[in-house]
């Protein structure tokens, strides 16, 4: 089996980065939903004296992020911090893919690889909007 062409490698690299960004978006939505749910529980517990005080304390620690607990807010901030460098890596990979695509067209590369690369470039530009 011949090794993959530079065009195929660049295409798969962009596809992987697009999937990675989608995964981080799903993670962020999940974390934000969890935070909203926890904040709602804390709001319900406040003002009630018969509730378990330890449960209220633990919820507040998680929501507010007091040490030594790992705060959900910290996790959300860290996930959001991933996006700018990831988008830059995607932009760089797309630029490289476009260069490889032009080379592939000029050298008469495989039609399947060229079509896959064009589709990937289109998807990457849609994701970047």
UniProtKB/TrEMBL annotation:
Any single GO CC term annotated in Swiss-Prot or TrEMBL for this entry? microtubule
Q: Where in the cell is it found?
A: Cytoplasm, Cytoskeleton
Amino acid composition bias (Basic and acidic residues), ranges on this chain: 103-113, 120-129
Domain of life where this protein originates: Eukaryota
Q: Where is this region: Disordered?
A: 103-129
Instruction: Drop me one GO molecular function for this one.
Output: beta-tubulin binding
Q: Name one GO biological process term.
A: tubulin complex assembly
Residues folding into a coiled coil are 21-55
Matches recorded under Gene3D superfamilies: 1.20.58.90
Matches recorded under InterPro entries: TBCA, TBCA_sf
Family under the similarity heading: Belongs to the TBCA family.
Record text on subunit structure and interactions? Supercomplex made of cofactors A to E. Cofactors A and D function by capturing and stabilizing tubulin in a quasi-native conformation. Cofactor E binds to the cofactor D-tubulin complex; interaction with cofactor C then causes the release of tubulin polypeptides that are committed to the native state.
Name of this protein: Tubulin-specific chaperone A
Question: Source species, please?
Answer: Glarea lozoyensis (strain ATCC 74030 / MF5533)
């Amino acid at each position: 089996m011949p090794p993959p062409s530079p065009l195929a490698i660049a295409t798969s690299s962009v596809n992987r980065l697009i999937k990675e960004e989608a995964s981080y978006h799903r993670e962020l939505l999940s974390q934000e939903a969890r935070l909203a749910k926890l904040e709602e529980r804390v709001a319900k517990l406040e003002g009630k004296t018969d509730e378990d005080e330890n449960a209220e304390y633990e919820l507040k620690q998680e929501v507010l992020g007091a040490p030594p607990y790992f705060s959900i807010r910290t996790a959300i901030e860290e996930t959001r911090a991933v996006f700018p460098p990831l988008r830059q890596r995607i932009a760089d990979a797309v630029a490289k893919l476009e260069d490889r695509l032009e080379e592939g067209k000029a050298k008469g590369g495989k039609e399947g690889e060229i079509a896959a690369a064009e589709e990937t470039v289109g998807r990457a530009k849609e994701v970047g909007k």
